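This section describes the prediction task in plain terms. A model, or a person checking by hand, is given the sequence of a single protein chain and must write out its three-dimensional structure as a string of tokens. No templates, partner chains or ligands are provided. The sample shown here is typical of the held-out split.
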Amino acid sequence: MRIAVIGAGGVGGYFGGRLAAADNEVTFVARGAQLDAIRANGIEILSALGNLRIHPVRAVELIDEVGVVDLVLIAVKLWDTENVAQTLRPLRDKGAAILSLQNGVDKDEVIRKCVPEDSILGGVCYIASKLSKPGVISHTGTVQRMVFGEYSGERSKRAETLLDACRRAAIDAEITDSIERVIWEKFVFLVGLSGTTATIRQTIGPIRANPQSRAFLVDVMKEVVALGRALGVDLREDFAEDMLAFCDSLPPSMTSSMYHDLESGSRLELPWLSGGVAELGRRVGIPTPLNRAIYDILALYSSGKA
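The expected answer:
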């Protein structure tokens, strides 16, 4: 496949790197020190599944430099979604499908304002990875999974092609006929993990072990489930309890990207996670007091250090 990866950090750098190593034509759109490092040394992935260096790698600064591709994989932070979306139409008009692996539940709605709806594949990813230094991606654990599908529920040729590319790249991948539900299922977990680890300033181990913080975690997730169900998403009423059981299976040292961003003084995706839950709840009349509290507690840190 010919693939453009917009955002070459922990997520885009990892999956794009694996796909490039499997002989796909991958172009990374990056900037600053990351762009310089990729151009000079390629991309290095440090992982328990096997370290990997891909060099040379094509990297550009502007989306206009990408050329014709089959797929655009978006992995930027959520605050960049609108700016990226406004640049996608030329790639779409040359035949590209658009797949966002970002967090949140309204990412594709933002993209739909700029490209036709049939351009978009829905998707999520599951991975603990970060940019440890320019050009180097550190992957924690062994989970590295992508789930994607058409919003119509059909099993399309483009989804099949991507599935085959992922499998050849040793990426755990799956096509789903219920991508909206899958996106919300991840959102339930992500809001719970990010909100609790960032506010409590602890990894998942101590949080799930303490009865009071454990109850806080599941109640945060219950608010997201109630909100999704009110919006018509096919979530089971007891889904938060399933996610709590999943949290029990995680390594005690597991944390969230928002926790890391908070610790490093970086900007937070807070307005799209617990903040997004609080805002959507306000609009549709669903109480979300715990997510509102998380949003208020972390508000001073949301923009990062001055």
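For orientation: Residues 91 and 257 are 30 Å apart (CA to CA).
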